[in-house]
Amino acid sequence: MIPSRLAPLLQQFDFARRRLTERMAGPAMDSGDGTEIRVGPLTDEEYFWEPVPGCWSVRRRADGPGPRASLLTGSGDWGRDAAPYPHPWPPPFTTLAWRLSHLDEMLTLRADHTAGTHTLTRDDHPVSGNAADAVAAFDAAAGAWREALLGVDDSALDTIGYCTYPHGSDPEEPFLDIVWWVNQELLHHGAEIALLRDLYRARRH
């Protein structure tokens, strides 16, 4: 049984996940009013597109971090631009690749720190070097987080620190608040990714 307080948040997560996946992968997406809009799959060119100078992005580790970044987080041949606190101000504009990698990592690590080994860190998590792999990684990460939520009972929702994710406020907050926060991250970064796709398409007209 899904706890009654969790059920609407899980429904919201499923809806946001489906809309973002369709927006990136196609062949069609819901326009928001029930009609379908044809959309092509995310391309590598879009994935790496930098709409303004000085973007933070995903880069080959051999090339080093981008402007105002001091490190590339993640594992493997690719990394995501990052810097320790205090972060650069004003915040760098981030590419679609950066935002999608951020979602993938957050969902994967939080799933692990909820119902997995409770050991994964950013240094363990691979960063995708192309659009197709990134979309697939997001889908796997979203599936892992959803699976973790299905194992949660009502008492866990009130437990502070139920999720031990080390890069957020999870150890200080009830798990229900963390579930809400993850939805908020998916909704707002998903909207940003959709907007970047629209801007990329419009730039050619």
UniProtKB/TrEMBL annotation:
Domain DinB-like: 35-193
SUPFAM superfamilies listed in its UniProt record: DinB/YfiT-like putative metalloenzymes
InterPro entries membership: DinB-like, DinB/YfiT-like
Pfam families: DinB_2
UniProt superkingdom: Bacteria
UniProt-recorded name of the protein: DinB-like domain-containing protein
Organism from which the protein derives: Streptomyces leeuwenhoekii
